[in-house]
Every structure is written in structure tokens, then in C-alpha cells.
Amino acid sequence: MSAIRVPSPNRGPVHPATAPGGLPLLGHLPAMVTRPLAFLDTLPALGDPVRVRVGPRDLYIVSTPESIHRVLTERADYDRSGPLYAKIRTFLGNGLATCPHADHRRLRRIVQPAFQRALLPRYAEAMTAETAALTARWRPGRTVDITHEAFTLTTAVAVRTLFSAGLTPGAAERLRHALDVLLRGLYLRVVLPAADLLPTPSRFEYRRALRSWHAGVAGIVADYRARGVDHGDVLSLLLAARDEDGRPLDERELADQVATLVLAGAETTSSALAWALRLVAEHPEVERKLHAEVDAGPADRPARWEDLGQLPYAGQVVNETLRLYPPAWAISRTTARPVELGGARLPAGALVVCCLYLLQRRPDLFPDPTRFDPDRFAPGAVQRDAYLPFGLGATRCLGDRFGAVEATLALATVAGRWRLRPVSDGAVRPVPRLVLSPGPQPVRLTARVSAPAG
């Protein structure tokens, strides 16, 4: 990689470099819509930060550990505000993943007990059960879209752990469909706000999904309140929670937290799992090591919580997948006042994008960075400052352990019984949504016979 531009020590802060190739009026919008990752790959050689024009707006892309740590931890200078977050809140509301820093501490204190480690074994039971139910429907020789299967699985787990009672299969499917439509449409609306002004079929579909989503979530919350029963799930914990002043979440706050948790539990984990399954299928040596580990542990039964200690390599596969394809591939903040970042001067109200996708593929931090190598995550082998798939600081994802456990158990369960073979030899093209998702991935299912332990 070319050397990063560093201002002379004898000069004051300078204006950041601007990415080349911008068009009149549109700027770099066509590249951000049609080939965002290929475009972003060209930026680190220009400096840090790099200015990108998206229509009338400027984005400042950062990809070094130093800049990303500053942006994600210096809360007085960088907040979750501005037009981009306003757009995301139309879908997710003022949830823990989208709220300004002024609201974050209170909401985190309320939500955090639902993700304490002591509850993970209970959640893992739902993960194991739903993975077993999904794979029981598979048949040798059949072709399935593993991206769709992963999304179906993680949505079912999210629904089951969030609200274990009172949700019919039809209601769960409506939520899953609405979530899928919204996630496909949200990235476009973030980079192209005018998408909501065009009378296209996709615009009407998006608005229908948004109404369905809000109505579905509000209905679930109202039903739980009316019953007044502790079901031992996440929503029951949220209903009973109080902040440090003894205040509960109101109806809107509850709906916003539920929306955020469904997204975090479904989309981010499904992306990681779909990528992991594809990468294992494409790397025979990794597949062999994974199969050997699973055959010595849970073998051809679904993996459970108590098996995790026997699945360290499966965990390394998940970690390396999250390095190559972090679901939260770009995390944005807005400057609350004029700041100096990486030797460059940024005005108040500037939109700064921490590109974790670029950070975790830097050759100066991860040698041969595009190679899939789970052994990077053998004990003691990871440069932690450059591996941030769940974010950093006070806004780090609360469900990081939840997602890692789910992906590891699902990966081991599939590996114990099945080999997946891509129908096409072509490379999978990442699809930037709110998270970095693979597109459709048709694979052929081949049953395998587990080798005897020992």
C-alpha cells in the first residue's frame, strides 16, 4: 500500500485530500452506489481522512487505527447526529445503536442486563433448536441459497429470544420480510436521499415494509404489556427494567429497542454466518480442520453451549470471517465542533465514516490481508487495536458475544452433517446494506459421514 500522506510537522492542520474521479453535481455518488468497496479500496493511499463527495454532501473516510479510535471514543467531539442518522432512525427509531450520546448511557444501562453472560446458555438453547430445525429441512443434492437460509435462521433466533410468547409464525414471517425489504432499501436512501422522492415500485414497497415493521413491533410490545407475564425473554427483561432514576422505558423507547435488537440479532449474525459457510466451502484445508474438530466434539448432532470449549477452531473461523467481512463495515459520526483529525481540519457538522472494512484489510496490520486464514486468531496472534468488528468504546455492540456464540454453534452444526458446494465458481460480490452482506449464494448440499472420534 502506498504511504499515507502526513502533513509536515512545521505546518498546521490542512484540508484533507479529496478522492479523484468525482462528477459535477453527483460527486462520487455513482461509485458509492454501484461499486462502493472497490472505490473505498483506493482511498487509504490518499491519506487519512479522505474527502468523498456524495451529491451535495461531503463524507470524510478514515481507516487507520489511530483515527478510528479517536472518532469512536471521543464522545464530546463525535456524536451520532446529522442527516444520516435521522434517515436511519426512520427505521430503527432512537435505539441503542442509533441514539445520540446524550441518550446512550441511560439506554445502555437498561438494555445491558438482557445480555449478561449468565443468560447466554438459555439463549444458546434457542440457537441450537432453531439451527436443528433449519438443517432438518435440508436434503442431500438439494440447492439452497445459504444467504437466505442464514437470514431465516438468525431472524428466528432473534424472534425466539426476544419474545418467546405471543408471536405466531405468520407474524414472525411478516417481521422477517419487512426487515429484509428495509435493509435492502436503507443503504440506497443513506447515499441517495432523493430515493424517497421518486415514485418507483421500490419506494412504495419500502414504505409498506416500514409501516408493517412499526405496526408489528408496536403490537408485540402492547401485547406483552397487557399480559403482564414474565416470559423469561429479552422483552420481558426490558419491560421490567428501570434506569438509575427508577424510570421504565416508554412505549416508543421499547419499540425502538426491539427494532434495534432484531436488526442486531438477525442481520449482522446472518451476514457473518453466510460468509463463514461460503469461505469454508472455498478453502478445503480450513474445511478439513473444521470437520476434524467437530467430529471430535458434537459430531453429527447439533452443537450446544457446553460444546463451545471443544470448538476453538470454529471460533477462529468466525473471527477471521468478521475480519474480512465485518457486518458493521462503516460506522459514522458527526463532528460536534471543529476538530483536527489525522493532521486535517474538519468543520463542525462533518460526517466522518470509520471504515472497518478498510481497517481490517490493511497490509501493514494484517499481512496478505485478503487471504482467509483462521490461524490469525490462534491464541495471542491478533493485533487487537486493528480488529474492531463490533465497534469500540461505550457504543461497542452489546450483543457481540451473543452473535459470536450463535455463528459458532450454527457453523459447527452445519459442518457436522453437511458439505456445501457453491453452484457457481464465480466470486461472491458483497452487497453493502446497513451491514456488509453477501448476495445470493446458491450451494449444493452434500451429506457427510462424521469420522469417529479418536
UniProtKB/TrEMBL annotation:
Cofactor: heme
SUPFAM superfamilies registered for this protein in UniProt: Cytochrome P450
GO MF annotation: an example: monooxygenase activity
Keywords: Heme, Iron, Metal-binding, Monooxygenase, Oxidoreductase
One Pfam family linked to the record: p450
Binding-site list for heme: C397
InterPro entries recorded: Cyt_P450, Cyt_P450_CS, Cyt_P450_E_grp-I, Cyt_P450_sf, Cytochrome_P450_monoxygenase
Keyword Transcription regulation belongs to the record: no
The UniProt record lists the keyword Heme: yes
Top-rank taxon: Bacteria
Residues spanning the signal sequence: none
Family classification: Belongs to the cytochrome P450 family.
Protein name: Cytochrome P450
Organism of this sequence: Kitasatospora cheerisanensis KCTC 2395
Organismal lineage: Bacteria, Bacillati, Actinomycetota, Actinomycetes, Kitasatosporales
